[in-house]
Amino acid sequence: MKLYKIQKDEEFEDDGLCSITFWFEDDPPRYITLCRDELACPSSIYIEYNDQIYGFETRDIEYSFENGRLTLKLLVNSFRWNNSSDVEIYIPEAEIDSVTSIMEKIFDLN
How far is the first Cα of the chain from the last one, in angstroms, to the nearest whole number? Predict the structure, then answer.
């Protein structure tokens, strides 16, 4: 999926919330947001896409990052816009380090 922009909230140390939103040129989805609130719900990841009505919390998600391609894989559910359990997002080279860093924080569910 082709990105329009990436929006990050890395103020994890201040409020326990860490999130990233990927905005897309293609529709659907307009966006995918991943976040984790270390204080309110430290053991799950909140995922939202297109609209808040499609948001849900889960522990059943994995990600991988290879050659600038971020893959999100739902282990139980599927994304409604394509009925697939996975999605690939191509990350610009200049954003790879910061996206990697924030994904590690979001997925640190220990």
Answer: 30
Dihedral of CA atoms 30, 45, 103, 84 in degrees, nearest 10, equals -50
Residue 45 and residue 107 in contact, taking contact as beta carbons nearer than 8 Å: yes
Residues of the chain below pLDDT 70: 10-14, 110
HEC per residue, 3-69: EEEEEEECCHHHHCEEEEEEEECCCCCCEEEEEEECCCEEEEEEEEECEEEEEEEECCEEEEEECCE
Q: Greatest CA separation found in the chain? A: 37
pTM to 2 decimals? 0.89
